[in-house]
Amino acid sequence: MNKGKVYLVGAGPGDTGLITVKGLECIKKADVIIYDRLANDEFLKEAKQGCEFIYVGKKSSNHILPQDMINRVIAEKASEGKIVTRLKGGDPYVFGRGGEEAEILVDEGIEFEVVPGITSAIGGLCYAGIPITHRDYASSFHVITGHLREDEEREINWNALAGCRGTLVFLMGIGNLKHISESLIKEGKDPKTPVALISWATRYNQRTVVTDLENAFETAKEKNVKAPSLIVVGEVAWLREKLDFFEKRPLFGKKVVVTRARTQSSSLSEKINRLGGKAVELPSIKIEEIEKNTRLENAIENIQSYTHIVFTSRNGVEIFFKKLYEMNRDSRALYGLKVCSIGSGTSEELSKRGIKADIEPERFVSESLFEEMKKTIKPSDRVLIPRAENAREFLSAKLSEICNVDEIFTYRTVIDESSREIFEDVISGGVDCITFTSSSTVKNLIEIAGDGYREILDGIKLVSIGPVTSETIREFGLEVYREAEVSTIDGVVEVLKSL
Ligand code: SAH
What we know:
Layout: E1 5-10, H1 21-29, E2 32-35, E3 52-55, H2 67-79, E4 83-88, H3 98-107, E5 111-115, H4 120-127, E6 141-145, H5 150-155, H6 158-163, E7 167-171, H7 177-186, E8 194-199, E9 207-212, H8 216-222, E10 229-233, H9 240-243, E11 255-259, H10 267-274, E12 278-282, E13 286-289, H11 294-301, E14 308-311, H12 314-326, E15 338-341, H13 344-351, H14 366-374, E16 382-388, H15 394-400, E17 404-414, H16 417-427, E18 433-436, H17 439-449, H18 453-457, E19 461-464, H19 467-475, E20 482-483, H20 489-497
Parallel strand pairs: 1-4, 1-5, 2-3, 2-4, 6-7, 11-12, 11-18, 14-15, 14-16, 16-17, 18-19, 19-20
Antiparallel strand pairs: 7-10, 8-9, 8-10, 13-17
Helix pairs in contact: 2-3, 10-20, 12-13, 14-15, 17-19
Bound molecules: S-adenosyl-L-homocysteine.
């Protein structure tokens, strides 16, 4: 059988723009992508359909898969005849054990190619405003692992490193920073030598801390500098003040949620990212009709036994009427029933079928509908609520205290795993604000958020494109933090810049 082929690809330091053209081609043609923590997983979006993704973790202290297992997986997938792209952060041969992975392939007779990448050891400094060499300050540079095995430790010539005027860049060194700085000082390096600590270089959450050699360890502790970080020792670090361009961009470091309407894709995300922020797109939700719904069929058969019917969403209306037509009936079947509706979208959908809702609360929430219905509802009434399986229980629970309620699930909203994960970020307060560019983006988000949306969104800044959208936000009982002065995407971006 064809033995497949492996591409060892450098994904660059993090910014998705910093991969080579060839590296990207390898992602696009791969049958399997094996990637680790430092390779930006945004690249996976570029893979072809059906491509298998294997995450092999790798934190310096917590290898999700030990290296020999990684080697095995790469070799195995290739020997199944597949194109395997092994995506590694930075350059594949700068630490990270790329050399060993390649050796195994040679030993196993598997064809392979290596695609170099921009190493964080150079590119990371660049994005922090630090040129790794400079005519006035550094005429060489040295890249050193800070994660030393005992026998490697002996190989490090601290004396030579301390004595040279080149820039020293330590990778995987944060856990060893005390030892590194002390060793350099002990061997005669000036304790005042500037040190830059750059975390998550080239990503939206890049952070740079500048200190000096004698204070490096304490400062790192105080500022909670964590891996992955680069330690840069040398006078070039001072240039950052002048040459920083990346952290100065207007939306730098801001994490902004962009909620899409069902089909709309967003140029807003692109703008946010270009200005240095991180747009988190909440994917739109999908509606899945409940099939073979005999309860719904029975309810329609006996529709005249109800006194009220409640619709809580546009989809609820659509699916109910679809069934009604399938059963050879139409709007006239609802003759005599009081029709209750939550939300302007729901009422609009009803009006397309020639129905004007009898009860329609001003605010688009179950609480308000209940308040309205409570005024007239009698114990002898029977209420039919065809609704989403995963919607709120509130209305039916409250109404059942007064009269008979038949709640029938007609559809469910399905949210894929990725949007749930993203939403968890929202919950944990990991975002600065949420943007809404239309009323349907508001409704979409609420649907994804589910029951406790008010508590979930509490404390997060909600930015609206204009008065109509703001109105919808308020109808859901939420507060608009700022509204764009001009109701356009650029207007929203202006608001974001000023947050
Ligand atoms: N092959 C990679 C390095 C792998 S070793 C490269 O060429 O960049 C892993 C170490 O690289 C991390 O511990 C950290 O010190 C450094 N590193 C990689 N990417 C980084 C980033 N975006 N920001 C800061 N440090 C990074």
